[in-house]
Amino acid sequence: MKNLKSILLLVVLTFIVISCSENDSLVIEPIEAKTISNLHAPQEQAGHGQPISGEFTKFSFKEGKQVTDDNWDIAFRGLRVIINGGNKYGLTDEPERTGNASLAVIKSPFKDVKETPTEDKFKQDANGVYAITSDGGDDWYTYGNRIVTANAGTILVVKTIDGNYAKMEIKSYYKDNPNTITTSSEPRYYTFDYVYNPRVGDKSFQ
Amino acid sequence: MILNRKWLLPLIMISNIVFSQKKEQVKKDEKLDEVIVTATRTKRQLSLVPMPVTLITKKQLQKSGSVRLRDILLEQTGIVMVTDFGNSEGLQLQGVSADYTLIMIDGVPIVGRTSGNIDLNRLTVNSIKQIEVVKGPSSSLYGSEAIGGVVNIITETPKENQLKGNFQLLTRFGAKNELDINAGITSKKDKLGVVADVNLNSSGGFDLSPETENITTYPHQNFTGNLKVLYDFSENLKGNISQRLYTQNQKSAFGNNTQRDWNFSTNWNHRINNSWSIDYSFYGTQYKAESVFNNEVTVFDRSLNRPEIKSKLKLKNSNLITGVGVNFDALLRSEFDDKKKFIAYYAFAQYDFNPLNRLNVVLGARFDNPDKYKSAFSPKLSARYKINNWLAVKTSVGTGFKAPDFRQLYLNFRNGVGGYIVLGTQAIHDLYPNATGLERIERELKPETSIGYNFGFQIKPINNLKLDINLFRNDISELIDTFDTELNPNELNLPNNTRVFSYRNISEVYTQGVELDVSYKLNHNLKILGGYQFLDTGDKEQESKIKNGEIFIRRTSSSSSEKLTLNNYFGLANRSKHTANLKLFYENFEHNFSANIRGIYRSKYALFDTNNSQGIIDNYDKFVSDNLQINLTIDKSFKDFITLQVGVDNLFNEEGVENSNNFPNNDSVLRLGRIIYSRIQFNF
């Protein structure tokens, strides 16, 4: 009886192992989750009421890092987030839109965004309109008690200039993503998680 | 801090008079003392009333070394002191915040709230006979603001042929420098009774966070004078006039703050026959605060005048109370255009009867008909059933309400820099009668209303042990909150992008829990009192948002977002799930010596949403950590003439410094450190 049990167990285990390895043989190109920390997005302002100026900090999902040429997907300056697609909003020192990137905002936990939303959700910047708030929704942050907090569950899905898809979650606006933000925390340092699908046009994030 | 000289002279005079009096022996009958008036507006034995009531006796006040009302209330089960921003502190009862709790002296309310709180340090405990706390809604008797319950301070009343006086001096040092001097006299001879008290209190202030620029509390000195004169014109007509004046002066870095609180009340009891009597009373009070900030004077001048007629009819096995009155409320505030007034007529009735030998039922209702907001009807039903000699069950269901306050109707606040304005509902209608979308703002706000349920047992299994268990639930609806009216600023001649806020009846919250009180007399000398409250609170709209999966949180700053589930919902701000107290009173009658040790515990609580989940507090927010404060008092009497007392508050110096990491620059999360005090009291 005891033997029979052991054999049964062995059979089951073997089955599991085999089925796992079968899965493994269908390996897809890895879609990795990455974190960018302390992406500095400074801004300049001559005085209260004066227009905000300065270079935007550009980011490419394909490169996985900050870029300085026109091959950017998304860019940051202070609290402002723009996408490389559409037209200029009309800001000082705003970069030309050289690509056809677009952006959709989804309310969801990061891990639950398993594929891209429908095409109509993707928006581009335009004169007087930011892609990120064009749906009439909230921005990626909340400002209160003189502190900027990144909204939890606000996921940005980006269609890059090359037609790839990436999802990102901004987690912090302050240097080193402190657990307790105070008015003396150093602002304009973005920390965000992202998942980039290297296969062009593939809408899956898993 | 040296007391103002002009007070010293009359003080010395009074104390001289008091010293020369001869002592009158008054036998204390403890059972007789356990009579309360707040629950039913009639004299009732504490153990027999059908509502949950806490009684704090004068003896307990004195033995605990209390100076101001705050000191004693925070040691009671189910009462939590909550500090709001700006260090205004208020009393939370059954999880209901201070705005919704009535603080009264002899049955009439104290006015003048700061951020919704009555400052309990305004009230000296010296002229107090006892404090009665009725939990759960009591608007059926007391009208507006009696949602969480009422705290009623009962002042001394002289007994026949009584003459007693006291003079006492208290100094506190350690974390807080304070001097409290009190002289009082209580006398009754033939038809004339007098109760007079003078209290002087001054403090050097304190700063919980010396590293920051802000001072937590600036030095102050204040004066309280009470004078009550009672006269029995005949067996059938008795009258009294009572006055209280409180003034405080506080010097801050920006200027001077003064407060003046004046109460006047008179009551005439006319006994028509053995079963019917009528009380004619008038109450007037004014609270005026003036503060100077950058040479600009801000005024807050609140007054209430209330004539009332109350009839009491004693029938066989029952009694009926009926009453009518008018509230004339007024407020003048720097942020208002002019003086604002409310007039509200009210009528109430209460029938207290015993349908069965073991069953007592109290049925009451009140109708308030105000001129500036919608009317309120507040019924209440309470019952107590004695099952046997050691077990009784109590239950009550009642409604409470809180009238919209002046600010919610009349505020006219303009923040030029911030790009927003806040207008009261009537102010916005008066200023912009033709604005598009004005119909979104109701001119007449509804009162905030509640239904409260209490259900409890009184158990007395053995002679020395008393156990009280009470389950409670309060559903508060029509809570008034600010909202963005989305009115077009251009149409209102305001700068572009100005957001216009006003008020509306919006949210619904609940508080529920269990309260447990134990009193055990070990022997003649030793008594243990224990109390515990479990509290669960929530906002119904927040809960439905969580259920719908609309709320996201991040557990820490580096974790990914997730949907908040109801298991991780913590409830309302400033609510601790567990609060408890344990007190040990020892009395040595042979050597006139007594000592007690009191521990007060409060579990962790949140101040606000710290992880950006739409204002919702969840288990991953930052909390003010739990704390336990131990207080110790020892006193010794010499021939009943002199009592010496020494005590330590916050024996283990629990200052809550660990909270500074989570809540920097916020003094409300810090606590006063160890305070040592001594008191000398002369009794006559």
Molecular structure report:
With 206 residues, chain A is mainly β. Chain A has one domain (2-197). Chain A has one helix at 2-25; strands spanning 33-40, 44-45, 52-53, 57-60, 65-67, 74-77, 80-83, 102-107, 141-144, 147-150, 154-159, 165-174, 187-197. The longest helix of chain A is centred in the first third of the chain and has 24 residues, at 2-25. Chain A is globular, with a radius of gyration of 22 Å. The mean pLDDT of chain A is 86. With 684 residues, chain B is mostly beta strands. Chain B has a domain at 522-624. Chain B has a 22-stranded antiparallel β-barrel. A five-stranded mixed beta sheet of chain B has the order 3-8-9-6-7. The interface between A and B is medium-sized, with 24 and 21 residues.
Oligomer designation: heterodimer
The secondary-structure class of chain B comes to mainly beta
Taking the alpha carbons of the first and last residues of chain A, their distance comes to 44 Å
Name the helicity range of chain A.
Answer: 10-25%
Q: How many domains of chain A? A: 1
Largest interface, with counts of residues having CB < 8 Å to the other chain, equals: A-B, 24 and 21 residues
β-sheet strand percentage of chain A: 25-35%
Which regions of chain A are unreliable across 5 or more consecutive residues at pLDDT < 50? none
Question: How many strand elements of chain B?
Answer: 37
Low-confidence segments of chain B, ≥5 residues, pLDDT <50? 1-31
- Helix content class of chain B: under 10%
The global form of chain B is: globular
Largest sheet of chain A: 5 strands, antiparallel
Global morphology of chain A: globular
Main sheet record of chain B:
22 strands, antiparallel, barrel
Protein name (chain A): HmuY family protein
InterPro entries (chain A): HmuY
Pfam families (chain A): HmuY
Protein name (chain B): TonB-dependent receptor
